[in-house]
Amino acid sequence: MTETVLLNAAWVVPVRPRGTVFEQHSVVIERGRITALLPTKVAQSRFQGVREVNLGHHVLLPGLINMHTHSPMTLLRGYADDRDMQSWLREDIWPLEARFVSPEFVADGSRLAIVEMIRAGTTCFNENYFFPDAIAAAADSAGMRACIGLPIIEMSTAWAETVDDCFARGMQLAESYASHSRLQFSLAPHAPYTVGDPTLERIATYSATQQMPVHMHLLETAWEVQQSLEQYGKSPLERLDANGLLDERLLAVHMTQLESSDIETLAQHHVNIVHCPESNLKLASGICPLVELLEAGINLCIGTDGAASNNDLDLLAEARAAALLAKGISNDATQPDAFTTLEMLTINAAHALGIEDTVGSIEADKAADLVALDLNQARTLPVHDVVSAIIYSAASAQFSDVWVAGRRLMKGGSLCTLDEADVLARAVNWGRRIAAGRTVA
Amino acid sequence: MTETVLLNAAWVVPVRPRGTVFEQHSVVIERGRITALLPTKVAQSRFQGVREVNLGHHVLLPGLINMHTHSPMTLLRGYADDRDMQSWLREDIWPLEARFVSPEFVADGSRLAIVEMIRAGTTCFNENYFFPDAIAAAADSAGMRACIGLPIIEMSTAWAETVDDCFARGMQLAESYASHSRLQFSLAPHAPYTVGDPTLERIATYSATQQMPVHMHLLETAWEVQQSLEQYGKSPLERLDANGLLDERLLAVHMTQLESSDIETLAQHHVNIVHCPESNLKLASGICPLVELLEAGINLCIGTDGAASNNDLDLLAEARAAALLAKGISNDATQPDAFTTLEMLTINAAHALGIEDTVGSIEADKAADLVALDLNQARTLPVHDVVSAIIYSAASAQFSDVWVAGRRLMKGGSLCTLDEADVLARAVNWGRRIAAGRTVA
Fold this sequence. Notes:
The structure is a homodimer.
Chain A: E1 5-12, E2 22-30, E3 33-39, H1 40-46, E4 51-62, E5 64-69, H2 85-100, H3 103-119, E6 122-127, H4 132-142, E7 145-152, H5 163-176, E8 183-189, H6 197-210, E9 214-218, H7 222-232, H8 236-242, E10 250-254, H9 260-268, E11 272-275, H10 277-282, H11 290-295, E12 300-302, H12 315-330, H13 338-345, H14 347-352, E13 370-374, H15 386-393, E14 399-404, E15 407-411, E16 414-415, H16 420-440
Parallel strand pairs in A: 1-4, 5-6, 6-7, 7-8, 9-10, 10-11, 11-12
Antiparallel strand pairs in A: 1-2, 2-3, 4-13, 13-14, 14-15, 15-16
Helix pairs in contact in A: 3-4, 3-16, 12-13, 13-15
């Protein structure tokens, strides 16, 4: 990672400046950081004798950022489908989690997710699950960048018995990684219906003093809004506002139940919204009004959600679903355009996580979090418009190479930091264990 | 194709009987037809010394059937995006087609589409484009099964100057393939706004006498309905009914503008509906009410539409989009379930094309149109439910092997009947020619 490397690509889409596409350009990496973006001929004459990676059929992009997932839930992928959200959660997922979730489950599920995400061009993920220590360790050893949620839920779980335990264990974990260059932490209250007001207020205080993002499921279903009105006499957004949580550190996930007045409030408070269209559709939760949110100037990002409700971690496909769905439900084929969609996967996500100075675009002095997508395949030819090819045509299987902070995590389709065969074998084994558990139950 | 072959798979999903999944089973192929589906151990003892193909991590399925596409439009993929349907068609696509469409364009574009479709597990496609002779030749030499539309449009095109020419050239082509085992033909009137009543009536007569399907864009946009009311004083459906076209041979594509009374009419007349969710969303045309149509007992199929409006020919991803969108807009996460979605890709499509006795399921005496999907990848592990893995998790890149009528079109990810490098090189070249044309224009 200390050597200088030239990545020579057929196309580079740096995301910033907006809308630019460079042909036959090179990204220069030195000590894990991007130091220049130059025409390949210029770069080759300026940096003679350095190592070069030729990506002659590829577009080089900033690494994609998955803004909402529960990595270990890969092990529950396809366990229960075609159910509405509350039945799915209460009758299928929660009982299964109570039975199986352990540090070993979380470590194996996280590695499975990381394999899938690297293969899908993802360099950073915004996570929320139990045993965040095991997730952080998996991300660290795989070389991924991540924002690890410290789960807060007012139910006894295998990770923490009480809310006090949630804070204590979470803060201890965050401190243990305090100087880490790739891992950061968020406070992750589960949802309005599982976290009370005193806890929300406490989270607001921690978030302000520690400058930590707050990562929360919010306005996911009509049921959630109704439940809040019944229990608290307030909507979930009113509760968050009353407890001081509506600000630029909030990563509000789902947001399918929005009134026009809510959108103004969210814009005024610079709240970030994470749209998970496939999970919302699959659980029939509702549809986040992406075009209205964009028009209100809200910072929008995209997440896959966990594999149990998606059922994959394919962020490029998720972005395509987001763009197509937004056009369809707004009756306006012009919004969002392909480039705006790409921003949601990159620079908008970096902004939401507070790491816009480090990642999210290909610019000098940023970390070399880069992904190469091979466009010389039937599915993406001919290339009339490279951004259209990325957003509307490419399959995630076309990602060939991935770098995080200059370290190569995938090389020509082979993973460099994980024993993939072992990860897959463990997943198969968990499938058997869970199936045996289901039979017994 | 005359030898006996055993395909030994970890799972077989034959589609018929409904809902069945077999583990460690073998499909026996003899003379291009399926002759048995047996436990692998039984098959191996009964058929000793025959060639075996081991698909130890795979699920074997009936080949997928893409029920609406314009194959040559792969060459226009990504040429114009983020535009509404009528502007896209009139300002971008039609002028470009007038300039470039030729037998050479159609042959090269068809082969590009066929490469993409075979790689995506597609064994049969329902086509509509100019120069159907070139498409038929491409499908024939690649070994694909297809229903080739004979285009009928009341505009002068490079293929035919008048409607009379459309019929004459079309019928001549259909006759030249009359005894072909893999190719059939449909009458393909473009849309209600480009075909008048006398032509519709003539199509109905031909369809009845020749027993040919009628493949038509229908109720795609609100504009189309309005235009019909203004010009004819009737809705498009009323016009088709008046001209005798509402029957079991009609393949009605899109159908986003349906009233409840229309759904009853369509069900009574056994009209087949082809849902193209991604194209409809991307062009903001409207949304086909899949759940209501299923509940009415209508035979539903799925098409990708052309790559210019999709922008890929990935039928599995299209099916996932169809299922997720239907759940989301109906507020019912239970419909359609994964198996019902798989039926739309296989047996329902075979029924619509009138070839249900030949393809659409893995049953004795049907043609060996089969596809193998490798599930031993991060994205589809663990396999808690194999049909869920196919519909909700798998990427089309996981298709490894494809057979049509027992002939292998893809073997372990390599195409057997096409020179893929040549097909891709020609696509790149068309990209250059079209870009140069745009600059000049």
